Amino acid sequence: MRYAVDRYAIGTEIEVCADDFYGKYIPNKLSRFRCPECGEIVYFRSKGGNQPNHFYHKVKTDQTPECDKRVDGHAKLSLYQRVGLSLYLTGVVSGNLQLNIGFPAIGRHLLMQAETQKLIVNIIGDNNTKIAKRIDSSNFFEDRLTLIPVNFVPKNTRNYSIEISGTSSMRLFSKQWAGFADGFGVGGAIFSFEETGGKKIRRGDCISTQRTYYLVTKIGIPPHKEIKCTEIGKLYLKNNAYKVYVFEINVDLDNKARFLAVSDYFNRFFGVVLLEKQPELIPLWPPVVVQEFFIPVKNNSSVVCSVSSGNSSPNVYLYKEFATAPVDLHRNRSGGYTTEIYVGKTPSILSVDRKYVGREAVFQDRFIIRPNFSYEIQIERPNHVITPWDKVTEDIFKSDFSVIANSKMELYIGSLNRTFRYEPIRSALTAIPYKTNTNEMYLIIESGIAFHIKAHVKGQRIEIEDKELAKSLTNCICGQMVPIPMWAYYGIRLLKRNGYLQTYHKIMALINNQEISIALLKQMRKPEFMRITNLNKLIK
Ligand SMILES: [Zn+2]
């Protein structure tokens, strides 16, 4: 195989191509590479000549040819066919814990077709454990994930097998469904944490420190003091009762021995690896609500995301039908990375640092299901004037204010210079300090938007002025070039800070080798520029 997972240092991993290592000294080369499919150790081999560099499995198993095929993407497999269906834990609130397999929506047309053909899906563990469900509108949703309860786990860490009755009918479902679902490790399984339940962390994927997860285990409480556990109930499956805990790991990477011991425990018993930092996309603006997918609160928008990764140069992959493509990342001055994802009606599916591992983030422009409870939200201004949220105007952006609320909610604040603030509202009164350039805000409750306000007038005015100014620069391209004076530097920076981005980019494009044309400098001294950039004080 050409690709492998490189665990080049404790608590880190990255997907690499064999060609990257040609002719190089590779420290720890006998233990650092893993098969992205089965997680077993693989070795680097370079034979030279016209033989490609590659990785190979240490121990050949029945699965090896399948791994090679999947890892190198020769097989025309959709994302779901590669990662399998996901397992979900539900019933945390009621205490009646339940294990389910999630079947993604197949759409009205396909569901009707299956119903007419009387198709049945079988979830199989072994000869004695099997669940059959007719594929029809009484058992499956056409437009969202359907959870089918399962009361067994396949023996010997095998996967669930998913079969559909009828001739060649699996192919119909191959875009959304898979022939398997990830089984348990020898100790049980780890699930992501939401208050009501979680999604299973697929074997081969990772967990990270300082985060909450569910542990479904039959081997008892973890024997490491760095894993803080609270028992929340039991999950009864055929032949086995599992204990369910909520847990968090607190171990520092500087304490290598302890980090390794904890990582080894999770790898051995649950098939997951401990990383220092969770590889993930964190949506910044506009806010998104999480309803199965990430849904931006603005239709047809781009979502700016920050990229969390333990690697100094992370990769973000966008899934195409049978393949992936890397996404452009923007490096901030602070060294972090962001990326901008266009979100439309077709789902945009992305993953950080690893492909086909089952931890994709899905963004889609969809109808947001809004909460139908009533909330009391009021805004208090510094002069103690209290306004109900639906009467608030853009004046709110001109000073400090406080949010008075009777429920927890999330406040997102945007600004003209594309810096974003997130303020969780967790108490009856939350003070929000004033910041310049603030122009937009969303208040989100229970995953539905409650409140949106934008400073229209100022925003629009800037937009119009920006266009005009940018246009006025068109004739400044030619002429004699001089080194950029200090006042012009300030002016350019202020344009950017105040949201005159078209003009800013145009000027930046006209600067060549730290020099600027005299015609452009003349233009920048005109009153319409001076008013915006406040430069009159600087130019003597
Ligand atoms: Zn493998």
Describe what is shown at a glance.
The protein has 540 residues and is an alpha+beta fold. The chain has nine helices and 39 strands.
pLDDT under 50 segments (min length 5)? Answer: none
What spatial form do the alpha-carbon principal axes imply? globular
Helix content: 10-25%
* Total domains: 6
Strand order of the largest sheet: 10-7-6-14
Overall mean confidence score, pLDDT: 88
Calculate the terminal CA-CA distance, rounded to whole Å.
67 Å
Major sheet summary line: 4 strands, antiparallel
Oligomer: single chain
Structural class by SSE content: alpha+beta
User: What compounds sit in this structure?
Assistant: zinc ion
Strand percentage lies at 25-35%
Number of strands: 39
Could you please describe the fold and organization of this structure?
The chain folds into six domains: 3-75, no CATH class; 80-181, no CATH class; 188-275, no CATH class; 280-363, Immunoglobulin-like; 377-454, Immunoglobulin-like (Sandwich), CATH 2.60.40; 458-537, no CATH class. The chain is 17% helix and 35% strand. A four-stranded antiparallel beta sheet has the order 10-7-6-14, with no helix packed on it. It has a four-stranded antiparallel beta sheet with strand order 9-8-11-12, with no helix packed on it. Helix 5 packs parallel to helix 7.
